[in-house]
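pinging the channel bc i need a second pair of eyes. not urgent but kinda urgent?? the chain im working w is below, pasted from the shared doc
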Amino acid sequence: MSATTTRARRGHSLQRRLLASMTAAFVLLLLLISVLLWNYSRAAANRTYDLLLAGAALSVLERISYTAAGPTVDLPQSAMDILALAADDRVVYRVFSPGYGDLTGTPDLPLPADARASVDPVFYDVRLDEPFRFIYQGRQITSSSGRDWVFVQIGQTQGARRAQLDTLFLYGMAGLGGVSLIGLVFVWLAIRSSLAPLGDIAHTLLARNPRDLSPIEGDPPQEIAALFRAINSFISQLGRSRALTESFIADVAHQTRTSLSALQGQLALAVDADEPERMRGRLGKAEKQAERTMHLTNQLLANAMVIHRSDEAQLEPLDLRRLVRDTLAELLRERRLRAVTISLEDEDLPGGTAPVRGDAISIREALRNLIDNAVRHGGPENTILIELDGTAEVVRLTVSDAGPGIPAADRLRATERFTSINSATAGSGLGLAIVRSVAEGHGARLDLGSADLGGLRARIVFPRLATLLLAGLLLSAAPRGAMADEITIWASTDQVAMAPLISAFAERHAGLDITYREFQTVDLHRAVLEAGAEDMPDLVISSAMDLQVDLVNRGLAHRLRIPEMIQPPGWAKWRSELFGFTFEPAAILYDRRAFSARELPTSHRDLSSFIRDHENDLRGKIGGYDLRRSGIGYLFATQDTIQSVQAQRLTEVLGRAHMRRYCCTADMAVATQRGELAMALNVIGSYALHLGKEFPDIGVHFLDDYNLVMSRTVFVPKGARNPQRAETFVIFLLSQEGQALIESGTALIPLEPVSEPHSPIAGLLASKSGSFLPIRLGPGLLTFLDEIKRREFLRSWDATMIDDYGP
């Protein structure tokens, strides 16, 4: 059996190996996808039918009301119609209140493991006589005794969702299987066509003459372009290597033949000499010729070595100062240099070092040749000065001598190989050629000139290593969304309230310029909608949560990466784009000169009765927000209609009492201090509490049934010029440091107390903590921003406000 046959049998098919690998990968991928598809199908089925449960639960919750006998529910037909979309599934339901028991439905349905009072829906699975999927959700209603929870449970069997799961999974796997088979066919065809260029390259190389080192022509695919370039690069290196070898062989052959011929001639003359003196003279000349031959051989080998090492580019960081000193220490041991004065000056170096990127062997050879040239051409009283100096950009190695030098017209020719300018001191003609090759291989420059000593000055100028590194860093450090030194904030919050936060953030980011522009809430919403790309701010801060949700819902916000440990409560964040950072309950401002705290009402029902009973005394002396100008006023008013059945009644009572309309809390506080108002409703609690300290005649009152809580929200709009720095500002607001500063240094209130209650304000909030009802960020706030609904709401409100006692 031949060796060729053996190699063929031991080989393998790259095409078959690739196809087998791809088949195994497809099978593994299908297994992984099947697991993912099963989980996705189950999640998709649950998500679809959970929406039916959620829609039915919300329909039931909306029909819960309070009567004299307690809470009741008018079960809507729509809830059953929604559940009937899963036509074959059974349904059970239950509506109950902890204080009043079961209102309707199947009693004693199982509760979830984490059952608690919450408006958030909880989905869970329970097996009764067959598997059921349940939703559990609650709602607070206002009763005569305060706020009561009412809960709804709706369960549905899982036949429809299981059928959808199976359908999604089986159809998905069937499609994936078919696509995989088709994909394998195309993979096989792609492998064959993709590997074809490799065969073309092989045929081209096999058909070539061994002396043909020209590059391979062609336009290879990108995937094998690197191989194509590598082969051409290798061919090019072979060509250069062969050219160097041929040149070296030719030079060696010529120069050695000439030198050996001269040596042979001297020896022949010595043999023919009859007299001892003449023979001794001929042998002396033969000895000198032998020395020149050895020197020539060494130079030829040194030249070949320098060219080879330069071609290999074996460069690494080194200290040229240490290399020069070590080389001189070696040279000074040689006898031929003992009669020459050699001095070194290397003190004028930045930092005391000369860092370059180079090859120590090549540089040492170049320095040896410069010194050899200086010794050879300098004469018996020669002086050689070696200087090493530099700047922040370059390092200069200079060798000067006291010899005859080289005329300016011959300096360029002197660096050519086998060229000697002075025939009296002619050597191999390779010394300066070697130095030039070393300089070129190091990206340096060789300069020849006249020395102050009278002879030749040869200077090699190397790039300094630090400069090379700095250039690389500058090229790699091109701007890639780097943080600018300026951010712009548009806000509806008084600048005085935000000033401590802005100052603290600016101190932590030196050189940062922060521009703050203040708006009314409605004007801010309009400004952001109308802002062009060049005018968009970096941050938008507003107390009107619904208007902020509207802006984010329009796709105007960046998604932020807020660390988990400082995430705000669930009600104060939405879509990782909008974040609340304060806790600000609605409060009642009142004139202590007109009422005492004990006289004030304790619930929304009592508030309506209180105003009606004191209508004559309070006519024109009650303040409230102008809902058309104040976004926070509109937010509080609409949320009151959702939370309390007393909202419409209160609006009518306020209309008969000729309520005055204001844009902001500060104006109502000033009017109350002047005695123009006896009370102001739904003012921002944080401002009211701090204004109460400034105006001693003003009191702040919270109701016992509920007090709406809003949060000032912030987002980073798309189009922001500095979104990274803006995100950092949001993180600062939500951090423990930022929340502590809100508590101690501003008129605002943090989301959660950073420390134990240590002030009258903190104590008051702690005592009323159970009555605070946060407004949840989310699409629900868009309801009253619907154009028709908003118009109808404001029309009804305007009709109720009989007279306008504006400030």
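so The chain has 24 helices and 27 strands. and Residues 1-9, 467-483 have pLDDT under 50 and may be disordered. — does that match what u expected or am i reading it wrong
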